Amino acid sequence: MPDTTTDSGLRSFVATAADSDFPIQNLPYGVFRPIGAQLANAKPRVGVAIGDEVLDLAALERSGLLTVAGGENVFAHGSLNAFMALGRSAWQSVRQQISGLLRHDEPRLRDDSTLRQAALFPREAVELLLPVEIGDYTDFYSSREHATNVGKMLRGADNALQPNWLHLPVAYHGRTSSIVLDGSPVRRPLGQTEGGKFGPTRALDFELEMGFFIGPGNALGRPVPIAAAAEQIFGLVLVNDWSARDIQRWEYVPLGPFLAKNFATTISPWVVPLAALEPFRIAGPAQDPVPLPYLQAAGNWAFDIELEVQLQTPEMPVAETIVRSNFRHLHWTIAQQLAHHTINGCNMRPGDLLASGTVSGPEPESRGCLLERTWRGEQPLELPGGRQRTFLQDGDTVILRGWCQGDGYRIGFGEARGTVLPAIDLASAAG
Predict the structure, then answer these.
(1) Residues with active-site annotation
(2) Architecture of 137-425 per CATH?
(3) Which residue among 62, 144, 208, 316 is the one 20 to 30 A from 44 at the CA level?
(4) Domain 29-129 in CATH: superfamily?
(5) Which pTM value belongs to this model?
(6) In contact, 266 and 186? CB cutoff 8 Å
(7) What tens digit of pLDDT does each residue of 232-267 get?
(8) Residue 61, SS3?
């Protein structure tokens, strides 16, 4: 049965602006809790964003309008893990059902005022929560432009890329306990810098990334073939893997990032399903040398996703766009990342998060972090009012956005926003 959920002609009975991130062609999943005095004890449940409203999937399932094979009450949980574990067949079935129920000419939900009141919430009437219980987190280094720029700063133009970089997707294992949701503040980290000095980082940076969540997972010792990647990739989110560059420079040899990365990673609240991105598949950059067979995939695995970063200082009345990039620039695709991660038999589990690494493009304005954008602080970023930034200061707010532009609609990812708080005072904290 062909997937009709991305048809550009679809319309919903829920009012949706032409520039909304969440038209009926998107239907991203999230976890929410209704707010208000009368709902003080409301439990988290799974929902879908449609226009400026949130559709309660647990309420639809209770009503009998939504059925999930093999997953009774799967949407009443406070995470997406149980649903993701069911696999692609269940994802496709549920998506088709939700799309059908929301169409402008389908009366079952549209004309049932009682059910609509119980199942549709204005966005401002809910609290969004982390959508997934994230068991493991891996951050890749998959943008050739980013890796080249950083390599030039560290080793010079002749040795910018390490010998392995064009042969495999480089990555490190991150920390899940400090993954936070859009809107969460980020405390400036303390740590050691060059020469064993100690104090707050003076080179706090953002990283413009995207990440994807694993569905069913694989058994220990059984790799995921690249041809099966679509069976495992549930959906994508925006990721800001905050970085302390001066701490990183001192600590990363020989084992890579540690305290410079594990203090905070921000993700967007809505998980855009892989199915919603199908119309935006495109050919990625040419890969030379040709990857080994286990990294060769049929079809296109790059996606035309516009990405941007905005920065707002405490003195600025509105945020300023400082980065414009695109996910299509990524050298190593998400399918290759997954295939490489599991080729040694590493077992993925439902809810594992794999992030792309900084997504930079060929132009200066497409460089996806301040380290590149200001070339290690040597070329300060000019902001309105004569202000400058080399790295982030306390009170600065960073906003990541992403979207695919379709024919009369857009598939958006919402925002991944965070504001920098001052470093903690160790003396007062100890007291």
Answers:
(1) 146
(2) Alpha-Beta Complex (3.90)
(3) 208
(4) Fumarylacetoacetase, N-terminal domain (2.30.30.230)
(5) 0.96
(6) yes
(7) 999 999 999 999 999 999 999 999 899 999 999 999
(8) helix
